[in-house]
Amino acid sequence: MPRIFFAALFFIISLSSCGNKIETGIPLFNNVAFKLQGQEKAIPLEAAAEKKYRTYFNNQPLNQIPLLKHIKHPDYELFIGLPYNTSFERLKQNRASTETQHISCTPNSCFKQYKTDDLQITEYLYQTPGKSLIFIAALTALPNLPDSLFSAAAFGQRILITE
Question: What is the pLDDT of residues 32-42, one digit of tens each?
Answer without folding.
Answer: 999 998 899 99
